[in-house]
Design goal:
By secondary structure, this protein is an alpha+beta fold. The chain has helices at residues 25-28, 35-43, 114-117, 122-126, 152-170, 204-212, 217-224, 247-265, 344-351, 434-442, and strands at residues 87-95, 99-105, 108-113, 133-140, 148-151, 174-182, 185-190, 193-198, 228-237, 242-246, 271-281, 284-288, 293-297, 318-327, 332-336, 357-366, 369-374, 381-385, 406-415, 420-424.
Length: 445
């Protein structure tokens, strides 16, 4: 069936579907609707004749067989031990292109009619050999001809529904491949059934690919066809032919299990070379370290002053991190990026002294002073306190300096332990430092 133009929901699968094939891009491509429409498509019950282009596709692929039309039994027909919809196991006693006979014992004989055989693939037909045990679906326990009408395809579909219900109850993960997509989300084959993953239930990683990948959104969906996927069965509604799946739930639980395992394995000081940035928040960046996420706090991203992680990192970027804390009780992992880089304060401690003149560029201003980055040590920022801007009373640094301005400043404080550098503008020409400045000038410093 064309995945793009699913006009009528149906139960059974076409013969071509006996061998599950991934739906092609031409068959399934359609404009992608927004999340609100997808949610509506899950919550609303579609009418049997509604166009399903914007809704979750039906789980089956083919209308009910014409053999299901109820016929009154023959007047003298003996009672049957089967009823419509039963699954029964029997043995094939004969197999021809026009009919396959199945013996259930105790004189009960059923027939798979030629109309169904015509719709089956060659491989499926070759499996219907004499003497083979087979499970069939009872279409009609006593037709007008007095025979039991059977269906192999309906039996397979019925077993798939039962299997889906089992997965729904157990909440075990189901592994498959992406078979196609429509404007509402992804389609995954569940045997003969078609499971639907709404956009809201796609994993965060896959959503990021859809939002930030190359090409159109439809191109990004198309690239996912045939990719492996792990899902959980969230809804089984046979009356509406609905089988709703969630990759997001499965991914979250898998990540939590992996995190529990990692927390037991990780040690403080451990280096992870291939961490992957998965999200950026105001307070830091979350990095995937092999199935679990740890936090790189804003202060642990860089030795430079960073006001937001986006100034230094991008989602999807590979980074080298060091494990700096493991809280097994609260299940939290603390990471650092900057500790894998040389500490510029080591140079500050050996290069600069209180009283030195330095060049620095004003980076930002606050009501208590201005920050300036050293020209010869760009990773180091010092604070020009508002009291060190001028001999006159200053209400705000903008009265004296401006952002981007390069200044000659005097080093008035070096606190390596707390990584603080005090600078002064008003003391650049202070008499207390004239002798020292003259000596350094004479020595060429």
């Amino acid at each position: 069936m064309d995945e793009k133009n699913m006009e009528q929901p149906s139960m059974a699968s076409t013969p071509q579907d006996d061998e599950v094939k991934a739906t092609s891009v031409e068959e399934t491509s359609a404009p992608i609707m927004d999340v609100a429409e997808v949610v509506a498509s899950i919550e609303e019950t579609p009418a049997p004749t509604m166009d399903l282009g914007d809704e979750a596709p039906s789980a089956g692929d083919e209308p009910h067989h014409e053999e299901e039309v109820q016929h009154p039994p023959a007047p003298d027909a003996p009672p049957s031990r089967f009823k419509r919809g039963d699954l029964a196991e029997g043995v094939i006693t004969s197999s021809t292109p026009t009919a396959v006979t199945v013996d259930f014992g105790e004189g009960a004989i059923g027939v798979i009619p030629g109309r169904e055989l015509e719709r089956m693939t060659r491989q499926s037909l070759e499996e219907l050999t004499e003497g083979k045990k087979i499970t069939v679906y009872v279409v009609n326990p006593h037709s007008h001809e007095g025979t039991i009408i059977l269906s192999v395809n309906r039996a397979i579909e019925e077993l798939d529904w039962q299997r889906a219900e089992t997965f729904h109850k157990s909440q075990d993960p189901y592994e498959a491949n992406v078979a196609g997509y429509n404007k509402g989300g992804l389609i995954v084959r569940f045997g003969r059934l078609r499971g639907f993953i709404p956009q809201s239930q796609i994993s965060d990683d896959r959503k990021r690919l859809l939002e930030n990948g190359e090409g159109t959104v439809e191109d990004r969906y198309a690239k996912m066809v045939n990719e492996p996927i792990v899902v959980k069965v969230m809804e089984v509604d046979r009356s509406r032919n609905r089988l709703i799946l969630s990759e997001r739930t499965a991914a979250r639980e898998r990540r939590e299990r992996r995190k529990e395992s990692l927390i037991e394995e990780l040690t403080v000081g451990q280096i992870i070379a291939n961490g992957r940035v998965v999200s950026l928040e105001d307070f830091g960046a979350f990095v995937d370290v092999g199935g679990a996420e740890g936090l790189v706090h804003l202060t642990e991203i860089s030795w430079k002053h960073v006001t937001h992680p986006k100034e230094a990192l991008k989602i999807g970027q590979t980074v080298k991190v060091e494990v700096i804390s493991v809280d097994r009780e609260r299940r939290r992992i603390g990471l650092s990026i900057k500790r894998q880089e040389a500490d510029p304060w080591d140079d500050v401690a050996t290069t600069y002294q209180v009283g030195d003149l330095v060049k620095a560029t004003v980076t930002k201003m606050t009501k208590f002073g201005a920050f300036a980055r050293l020209v010869d040590a760009e990773d180091i920022e010092g604070l020009i306190h508002i009291s060190e801007l001028s001999d006159k009373r200053v209400m705000h640094p903008k009265e004296v300096v401006k952002e981007g301005e390069q200044l000659d400043l005097r080093v008035v404080k070096i606190d390596v332990k707390n990584r603080r550098l005090g600078l002064s503008l008003k003391r650049v020409n202070s008499p207390e430092w004239l002798d020292r400045d003259l000596q350094r000038y004479m020595s060429g410093q």
